[in-house]
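User: Study the chain.
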Amino acid sequence: MADPNCFLNLALFCGLCLLRVFAQEAVDTHPVQDVFVAEGNDVQFPALGPLDGPEVNVVLCDVHHGATNTMLLNYYRGSPVELTSRFVNRSGLSLADGVFRLHEVRLSDQAIYSFRINLGARKFYRLHVLTPVSAPNIQRNASVFLPDVQLVCAASGSNLTRRWMKEALPLPPDCHLSSDNTTLLIRNATATHNGNFSCSVENRVSSRQTHFNLIIGGEFRPLAVKGDSKKEPAGR
């Protein structure tokens, strides 16, 4: 006699395959939770709950890249978890707690991931893969003889934000920042602007800080430019 669970799993499989056709519409109309990870690190998605009980027959996970939907895993009660070849050696689903883990995350893994248990509602997660902040450094404008001082906080990484401080306090009102906070400008700088400036650079997965000790000798005075003196021609 055929196992009734086989027919149930087959029916669920057919039904869920049809539901995958409408997955993109679900992405557009359902709430999506953000998950952040640094490139090269491992990420753990929120737990789905125990999946090894008799009430769980099917678990599906899809990856959504724009209008393209790709199967990530299938699980049918009593069978091993099936992973698509792209993830087979660097991901896994724990049936004990329903946690899906992805190892050595790549930039190409950035996408929306959806999970469905049986015929329940999908849960959507947008995976953000960010490049960590590089070691920042502050560069001063080339000429120390100009009246204006410009400090540039250089760093690389994904979705960076910068925050400047002077002597661990907010910047004085005569310090002006560019729209992205990369450049700090002090007009008509004098020795009163001397001090330790710090720039903190961060994103959702990392943060770094650097310092610059600004030293200005005194009030700026334009340098006098001397012309070449002309000698009177020797007497004839």
